[in-house]
Design goal:
60 residues, mainly alpha, single chain, rod-shaped
């Protein structure tokens, strides 16, 4: 094997490793954001219904 093919293979492996690490980091960040959003939704008061109690439907 010549030197350029060895270096090319190493560069490809490094690119793969870097992209996997970036993907893991991005997934971790998104998971933390979703967890925070769900916790905030669970701790807040539910929003009132937009029309419940304002009008009465008397048509049967």
């Amino acid at each position: 094997m010549n030197l350029s093919s060895i270096m090319g293979k190493q560069v490809a492996e490094l690119q793969h490793t870097l992209s996997m690490n970036l993907l893991k980091s991005q997934m971790s960040t998104q998971t933390a954001q979703v967890t925070a959003m769900l916790e905030k939704m669970n701790s807040s008061q539910p929003a009132p219904h937009p029309s419940k109690g304002h009008t009465v439907d008397i048509k049967g």
